[in-house]
Specification:
- The protein folds into 2 domains: 121 residues, Response regulator (Rossmann fold, 3-Layer(aba) Sandwich); 96 residues, Winged helix-like DNA-binding domain superfamily/Winged helix DNA-binding domain (Arc Repressor Mutant, subunit A, Orthogonal Bundle), CATH 1.10.10.
- By secondary structure, it is an alpha/beta fold.
- α2 packs parallel to α3, α4 runs parallel beside α8 and α6 crosses α8.
- It starts with a strand and ends with a strand.
Length: 230
């Protein structure tokens, strides 16, 4: 059974989400303040964290920062804040997706299932070991790990999905619509800032200063491609 941690101070909403997620056979842990949620996160393995921004004791941004020091579990930001700066801030700190209240339960469940599916699909012990190797860069698909010059690089679940999609299509120009549809597993909503933010952060993490390599190239007006020169 998959474990989901909900950290939100809206008890009525938490009750609703817990009931709906249990119908999908998920095991749910609910916390109503940031510090309690972070403490609960450290006690067991989770497949998804649903995290509000405006929380008592410790806000969602700080909780997310601490989670990312420990784990690359998918994090779905669930909040009443809907400004671009709030959304981008969460994504830059390592959130994998963002849903603004109020929302449709059907969309919420679909996003939860998508995030968990992408996180667990490569962790099946029966899966054949697959490693994509380039100049100075190794991507272990089965372990969802990345090495730059044999040094481990931490990526969030969504950043890994993005890198894997680009690298497995090396040399092919991928539009923002293709990237969004495949990596986010959702209909394209012209959310270019979201994609640009993720690509920018991923680029910084995997930039190979030693070999002077930029693995991800921008194709202006279209999208991105993974370099053929590597």
């Amino acid at each position: 059974m998959k474990n989901i941690l909900i950290i939100d101070d809206d008890k009525d909403l938490c009750g609703l989400l817990e009931r709906e997620l249990k119908k999908e056979s998920f095991n749910i842990i609910v916390c109503h303040d940031g510090q309690t949620g972070l403490d609960a996160f450290k006690t067991r393995n989770y497949h998804l964290v649903i995290l509000d921004i405006m929380l008592p004791v410790m806000n969602g941004y700080d909780v997310l920062t601490e989670i990312r020091k420990l784990n690359n579990v998918p994090v779905l930001m669930l909040t009443a804040k809907d400004s671009e700066i709030d959304k981008v801030s969460g994504l830059r700190l390592g959130a994998d997706d963002y849903l603004t209240k109020p929302f449709l339960i059907a969309e919420f469940i679909a996003r939860v299932q998508s995030l968990i599916r992408r996180f667990t699909v490569f962790n099946n012990s029966a899966e054949e070991k697959i490693i994509l190797s380039f100049k100075g860069l190794d991507i272990d698909v089965s372990l969802r790990s990345v090495l730059i010059n044999n040094i481990p690089i931490y990526l969030t679940a969504k950043e890994f999905d993005l890198l894997y999609f680009l690298a497995s299509n090396q040399g092919k120009v991928l539009t923002k619509e293709q990237i969004y549809t495949h990596v986010w597993n959702n209909d394209y909503s012209y959310d270019d800032r979201n994609i640009m933010s993720f690509v920018s952060k991923l680029r910084k993490k995997i930039k190979n200063e030693k070999l002077h390599i930029d693995y991800i190239q921008t194709v202006h007006g279209i999208g991105y491609r993974f370099s053929l020169e590597v």
